[in-house]
Amino acid sequence: MKSRLLFAVTAAVLSGFVSAQAGGADVIVGDIPDRANYAAVGGIDGFSFGTTSCNVGTVPLQWVSSTNQHPVIAQNLYRIKGGRFEQIGMSWLKHGFTALAQNLCATCQNPGTGSLLGVNCSDPYSASLNGNQTSAGPRNEVNAATGFFKYPVGTAYPAPSGTVARRLQVPSTDIDPTQNAGATYLVEAQYVSPDDAAAGNKNNNASYRAVTFTAGTTAGDFNATLSGTTVRTKTAVEGWAMLDPTVSITYYDIPNDGRFIVGKRAQVLGDGYTRYFYAVHNLNSDRSGKAFAVNFASAANVRGLWFNDVDYHSGEPYAATDWLPTIGTNSVSWSTEDCASNPNANALRWGTCYSFEFESDTAPIAEVITPFKPAVSGATCPPQPAIPSLGGYASTSVAYDFIPNVPTAGTLGPGTDDSAATVALGFSFNFWGTNYTQMVISSNGYLAIPGQSGTAYANTAIPAAAVPNGIICGYWDDLNPAATGSGKIYYQTVGTAPNRRFVVHWNGVYIYGTTQPENFQIILDETTNAITLTTVATTQGGSSATRGVENLTGTAGLQQSYNAPASVVANTSLRFASIPPTVIPPSANLAWTGPGTAGSTLTIQLVSKPSLPLVLLADTNAGPFTIPGNLGVLDIGLSLGTIPIADGIGLFGYADPNAKTDCICGAFSVSIALPAGLTGLTLYSQGIVIDSAAPNGAFHITTPVSFTFQ
After folding, report:
1. Domain boundary residue among 546, 578, 610?
2. How many Cβ atoms are within 10 Å of 196's Cβ, its own excluded?
3. Of 577, 542, 544, nearest to 558 (Cα)?
4. pTM over 0.85, yes/no
5. Which of 91, 131, 634, 702 could form a disulfide with 168 if both were Cys (CB 3.0 to 4.6 A apart)?
6. 272 shares a domain with 148
7. pLDDT digit string (tens) for 152-174?
8. With contact defined as beta carbons under 8 Å apart, do 389 and 116 qualify?
9. CB neighbourhood size of 47 (10 A)
């Protein structure tokens, strides 16, 4: 059956779905083993809790100190009392610095360095270590959706003073046993890590454990005592449901961002009204939340509204203004200021949980979370960093990627001390936005673009203005392939187009003046332009070497390590992926809910790019179609024929994309009844992109989302 549907999107909503866990690095909280109590100050008690991390993934997790390539650790405290679940405390962040290789969760595959948390390995941080005030960093500098944070951290904040600064703070009245009879408390710890996020494993990084409080020897001081065992990979709000079977949990994911978790329960009051309790937890969404609404199927009488948030502290810049309630005919909602008017408004940010309550004579049918930040960069409000990256490249640990037989089948490279050779790659390789068919091989462990020196033996930190620039450092050190007994350097192009690989192998080349060999490869991939640094064996482990990439001018780069002992590990690979500076972002991201059966309702949600008209098209057949006006033919898999296009306001037919004047931007949704006979549906979104080099001319299409109906 042929069917074409047109949707004009108009209302804000966030649709829920649960994403599948991927392979790669995957850090979790394996245990919350101990606690530390600190003297109260001004009615605020301070605590810290120990955490033992585990890498349950398939590759080692980066744990490099003095960079932004390590995990950060957050702690939160929650109270369940009188049917309510509410967050009552939070900490600043502990920054990881060295990973051990213990066996809490499984048998550790020891990577041989504290700069990696090996597969199945665990690493304990004590409560006192997590409570160190001087090394703690603020939450606002971290994007929990990507794991990105600037380094060094906390440079804009004064040194901490007093016993509770930067630690997990909680009002003493919230934990006083005499004022909280029957209350249950849960402490939660969460790890945020760049390569864990890049692998798609950021949604299992929080765990919780029960805790009790007793009065201390000094009035106003209370002591925490852990009880039970740590519940792994579950947030405290999920623990609320595990402790109370009347609580239900719903997951809401923002495409290309993070997850919200909503817990809810109902209590029948007996006078025709029911009290509804909601706890909305932002696990790792950088976009955050600015409004929460509950909708009813018909007009409802609402009373008894209540709201709870958690206080930031120790200099975090966010406001503490309570969200304002609004009662509509068919809804009740709470909201904070708009991001554009106040970027530091009291939004529902990552690692926090806000609670909402009301009484109603009509049952709710849906809840709606409205994002606080825009979906992409370029808007007034500060956007989320797109990916954890510096200077146009992002790095991640990958499975061991070694190309054998290069010394036997390849060509001999530079063979004297401090020497270089310019060689052909066999294909075109894009490095920092420029295509190259040749590279300079340095005897000292790096590649350089043509025209740059390949003889530099004194490695430096990167980026740096000093030459050489435009370099790929596999193990930049003073290496000497001419030394007696030293290995040699070989290169080879392997594979077939369009997936050829250029490999340079420093095969056991001695460090100058020693008999200590370094054995590693640099691999350049055709088409993807990926760069892989593979360590086969190492004797000095990076203690006097530089690894990373730098641009032609020395103004940008991504340094993996510089003169860092134990930072280079045998039988490991690190991959650098380029981020072109002229990337055209998607016009919108799609999500959906609904069973996908004939006669059911399908809800489609978009998060649009600011300044671009929204277009949402759906079809069950393939083929190009003609754009209204003179914008030509666009093939996005739809049927032949002219299809009207709708933006946030209505139909348009711009002859000149630069003439666009209207746009409704933000998060949008529409619900449709599915006609009988459909077996599947494909949705496309698009927007005008003012760039002649953009895909499909003046239009850019997001990745289509296809549904197969049951």
Report:
1. 578
2. 26
3. 577
4. no
5. 91
6. yes
7. 888 888 889 999 999 999 999 99
8. no
9. 27
